[in-house]
Amino acid sequence: MPHHTLHPLPHFECHLDDEAATLLLGTALSQSLVTGMIIYLYGDLGAGKTTLVRGILRGLGYTSTVKSPTYHLVEAYSVFNLNLYHFDLYRFKNALEWEESGFSDYCGTESLCLIEWPEKGLPLLPPADVHIHLNEQDDGRSMRAVALTPLGARCVNKLIIC
Ligand SMILES: Nc1ncnc2c1ncn2[C@@H]1O[C@H](COP(=O)(O)OP(=O)(O)OP(=O)(O)O)[C@@H](O)[C@H]1O
Ligand SMILES: [Mg+2]
Question: Chain-centre distance of CA 81, in angstroms?
């Protein structure tokens, strides 16, 4: 057996009492996001995915309206020198639409991509650094963030210490 230490990728769970808590978590997340990252946002209709993106954008200093990309499938933001793409793939009939719409070109080392309804685009999406799961729980939401890469681990570890 090789003697190397395993560093399991971190995960973080919490309860979000209300919309303000979801926004605050987004702001906390925004502090450790870097270009090239891809985050999948899992959760039912109304789970709070867009709210979380709104909190992230607020945390990055974006002050204008953050619309749900439900109809346009993607909203693009330029915040200081960061390109952020917010996708909502709910209306995809087929994962091939990811390629056909040219969205794969949006995700690269120069941008940050937040993807709602990733299951509609899998398996054609680029792999995520972090998976975030939101679920209704009591009057609020449960949130679970799971790191998939070292880059994602840095992000989730920051949540753990804050
Ligand atoms: N922690 C929370 N507790 C209670 N309500 C919340 C919480 N976070 C967000 N909400 C509310 O949930 C509602 C739906 O949120 P949101 O639009 O962000 O969901 P969504 O996951 O993006 O849904 P969709 O899949 O339809 O795009 C909003 O009214 C928002 O205020
Ligand atoms: Mg949404």
Answer: 19
| Spacing, Cα 80 to ligand 1 middle (Å) | 27
- Name which residue sits closest to atom 16 of ligand 1, judged by CA: 48
pLDDT tens per residue, range 47-58: 999 999 999 999
Segment 82-114, tens digit of pLDDT: 999 999 999 999 999 999 999 999 998 999 999
How many angstroms is it from 75 CA to the middle of ligand 2?
11
Nearest to 122 by CA among 149, 96, 156: 96
Tell me the best of 13, 14, 19, 87 to mutate to test the pocket of ligand 1, counting ligand atoms within 8 Å of each CB and taking the most.
19
Domain that holds residue 29: 15-161
* Domain membership flag for residue 6: no
Give me the number of domains the chain comprises. Answer: 1
Which tokens is 50 given?
């867009």
